[in-house]
Amino acid sequence: MFAAVLAGAGLIVVVSAEVWGTGVDGRLHAARYTARLSFFLFVTVFAAGAIAALFPSPATRWLRRQRRYLGLSFALAHYLHLAALTSFFVAAGEAPDTVTIVLGGLAFLLIALMALTSNDRSMRVLGPRAWRALHLAGAYYVWLVFMNSYLGRALGEAPPEPRVIFVITVALGFAAAALRAAAWLRRRSARGGE
Question: Taking residues 33-40, what's their average pLDDT?
């Protein structure tokens, strides 16, 4: 999976450079589309457990078993996005605003912590409760950052790209959250019926 992420991000950078050039525009498009690559990986991981619970099948159980590797692939993709974004800011001679640095920085910190603890040893050291709290809080925080970014652009007067792109990403994000809520309600109802 990591090779596919590297190939996908590399293809985004090459196509961005070919279509928009190697200057600021090409780097901006590389940053935008590496973010989309990481978002699609994230939303898949975010919804995987719920999909397996709500629609059990060999395919959904396989997806659930792959969550760790998909999550690590997301982390890799999002750090490649950070590299592309940094390249854009350097080329543009700009700096992101303080709110973006703080809120985005926290998201990158949580992604790093989740990636570093995505192994059985870390789960034993932290304990299942603390491990789950970290991964749950981190996942929902990253979801909020993505939704804040994409919803703001979908509802904005002049989005930087066709509005449909942001409508689709927002719809996927909310669909993943709705699946998680439905799976949680089903588990809660099942426990109440015991």
Answer: 95
